[in-house]
Amino acid sequence: MTVVPMLLGMLIVSLLVNSQIRQLSEQQSDVFHDALLNVYQEELVKVTQLAQSSLTPLLTNSNLTEEQKREEAKAILTKLAYADDGYFFVYGVDGENLVHPKQPFRVGKNWWDLADSEGQLIIQDLIEQAESGGGYTNYLWEQPSSGEITKKLGYAEMIADWDWIVGTGVYIDDIDRQLQALNALFENQIKETSLSVMAIAAAAVVAVVLCGLAVQINELRSADQKLVMLTKRIMTTQDEERRRVSRELHDGISQRLVAIKYSLEEARLAHDSDQHDAAPDSLIRSSEAQLDDTLMEVRRMSRDLHPSILDDLGLMVAVESLVEQFSRRTGIEVSLTKVPFRNLLNTSAKTALYRVTQEALSNIERHSKADKVHVAFEIKKDGFHLTIQDDGIGFDKNGKQHTKPDEFGLGLRNMSERINYFKGKFDIVSTAAGTTVLASIPRTSLSLSQ
Q1: Nearest to residue 428, comparing CAs of 382, 384, 383, 396?
Q2: Average pLDDT score over the chain
Q3: CB-hemisphere CA count at 13 Å for 135?
């Protein structure tokens, strides 16, 4: 549950980062291409202007005829060269080639309809750009140094006096190679970024797994400790309950049964001796009274172990019976505020509230020295509430009013655990004016015991 969302988040971050890097690289590539193309265009303009300036002395030389000037100009332009594949070409406005140092077979022929493999009319475009004041044309042309057809950026200007166009060009495969190198660099950066994100994700996953294992081991140890404590508590509870039942049987029922046995034996002896006085009758009546007390004691023990009235008539009737017997036995005045729970509570929740009430009344009887007790049930929006308040002497735990049940005996801990099972709240507030037990069960937790 922790690793999967984290991996998805890392994947989304990685995809976003890669996408942004690719967009940025494309933008930078376009900027680099445009900047490099501008450099090439400026260089073409400069070298063309230099070529034209080399012809200026001829144009102003009055000692030469026009034909001589043109022939001398052709010779100069044929010899001019720069870089590896830089040369100049001359065409007439009608498309006839006048100068071409790299492809001399074109000289003297008309190439008006010359087109590259993509169908672009090269000479017509160059003438059009030159007549418009000088301009650029992109086309495919054979590169002298490699003999391959590649992209070329051409530039042409007019020599108006002779109706010539003088042009040159640069092969822009260098631009493509530099762009490819730049794109390769960007791809490497993207791969490195992806690997970094993956490494971070792997490290985070390992860290989360290790932390999860540590937490799980700690929780298992804590659960084992709690299980051991719970087992001890269950065994202690069972032993105490067995001792209590044993005491009840030995001190109450056993003694009454022995007394009844002796009374019946004495009645039998009196009858066998033919004594016809009132002794056997009084002994039998005494035995009947003791049997009644014994039956009542058995019913009380049965009710303490599990009150059948709770299952048959519901929580309110069972608590009302418990309160009446408590008041009759102890002489403590008890008031009860009831609510119609009907079918709102399931069996486990009813048993938990009944046991909390029973244990609280038992503690009041043994320790509080109270004169009055109030037991109140309420139904609120957040759940079911039980309040048991007495006016006894209370108890003080290190000067605190609110006390934790685990600081006291087994009975209070059992009360707290019954309520905590339903994710409820249990609190004890004690002062010199009395003690209040507060317990609540939320509606949303009743499914725990269905």
Answers
A1: 396
A2: 81
A3: 14
Could you read off the pLDDT of 371-409 as tens digits, one per residue?
Answer: 999 999 998 888 899 999 999 988 765 555 555 555 556
Query: Do 361 and 370 touch, CB atoms closer than 8 A?
Result: no
Can you name the CATH fold of 307-449? Heat Shock Protein 90 (3.30.565)
Cβ–Cβ contacts within 10 Å for residue 280, how many?
18
Q: How confident is the model at residue 450 (pLDDT cuts 50, 70, 90)?
A: very low
Could you give phi then psi for residue 84, rounded to 5 degrees? -85, -45
Q: Which CATH number fits domain 3-171: 3.40.50.720, 3.90.1150.10, 3.30.450.20, 2.30.30.50?
A: 3.30.450.20
